[in-house]
Amino acid sequence: MRSVNESTGVGDCEADPVPSVSVVMPVRDAAATLTDAIRSVQSQTFSGWELIIFDDGSKDASRRIAEDHAAGDQRIVVMRSEAGQGAAAARNRAISVAKGKYVAFLDADDLWLPEKLERQIAFMRQTGAALTFTAYCRRDSAGRERVRQVPKHVDYETLLRGNVIGCLTAVYDREKLGRKYMPEIRRRHDFALWLEIVMQSGPAQGLNETLAVHRVRPGSLSANRIAATIDTWRMYRERIGLSRWQAGRNLAAHLMQRVFR
């Protein structure tokens, strides 16, 4: 096991061989789903990975679960902070220690299919893309599933009109891009990062194979959508720097995409 205290940044054992893929997993009170998420990484047919779990001040058993898994698998790194910093900051702390050529993302309540990394890394090597994404399945608490298909590629202007890149499917090439961090805003930090990468390196490439499962948590869907819409507007205006007219046009396109997808 490699365990890192955020206050010191010091690991408790010797470094492992350099992995090809660093998987970033922020955790906050996810004891009910964390084991399944970790096992979905351990079940990958592609074995050259490290899993960096950042426990962001969990009050439940999340930290113990993460450390128990790390004790049996040296590819798992556990980082921790006593104070909740938010999902973007947690991801960024993990990215800061990533060793892999590729950086991938998986939340503690989501899952990967076993061939996810094998298929996607082969796709990245084939295309030379700096950022890729795949189709995925949305599964609600009743077990109902809906597949989100993805386009072959998405450029900056198209991406502005609606985020088609599921965070649980995204992988970027750290050797091409350097360490790319998410802006530490409450929501839409992943969307903002994809826009930054696409602006810098050109279109992201989509692999239209269902390779991940997003588990939709129960709650007020309408309230979440309202909050997400407000945060998308703020991201357009404050992070991307769009004018009111540009932000309004792209937000309208974004909302229409959500209605019809």
From TrEMBL:
Pfam families: Glycos_transf_2
Gene Ontology terms for molecular function: hexosyltransferase activity
Keywords: Glycosyltransferase, Transferase
EC number: 2.4.-.-
Segments crossing the lipid bilayer: none
Domain Glycosyltransferase 2-like intervals: 22-149
Protein name: Teichuronic acid biosynthesis glycosyltransferase TuaG
Originating gene: tuaG
